[in-house]
Amino acid sequence: MPSPTAQRLNTHFIMDREDRKRNKNIGKNFMCRLQCMFSHTSSSERLSLEDTQQWSQSLERLLESKYGLATFRNFLKSEYSDENIEFWLTCEDYKKIKSSFRMSSRAKKIYEQFIKAESPKEINIDYHTREQIKRSVKTPTMHCFNDAQKIVYGLMERDSYPRFLRSDVYRTLLENLAAADATKG
What we know:
The chain is mainly alpha-helical. The chain has helices at 4-39, 49-54, 59-64, 66-78, 83-94, 100-115, 127-136, 146-166, 168-184.
């Protein structure tokens, strides 16, 4: 009978193998979803290889593209790490609110969902920023989440975005578009 340590190592090895299989299947499923999502657009709006290659120039370029944003969001969801992009997008929508009543209501929801400690989609920000937002939500302005949004953008730029560019999802998308271009040419 194997020692307890050997049993734990074997269990760990099996779990790693299962995780790799699951990730490979997630990548295949994700590509199917992307193909379905992109196949319903007109030819002038279709995703091109050139557009997709431009996503690698900057996070800003990626987020400016409706397909880039959708692909990045789906990638982050597949990794169970979509709270930063969801917060950033929610803040972008929040800044467009004109009504002070709606702004107050929405600010409280954003605080409860993303800022408050132990919230469902808690973002990774420092204590000082969290406390500053807690105070500003009492009388919210259009800019009360700006500091947190900058922090989250920086986190995505340094962590999620490079991971996305190295991902099978992005690489496979580039390969598929390059292959499609080659067959047209």
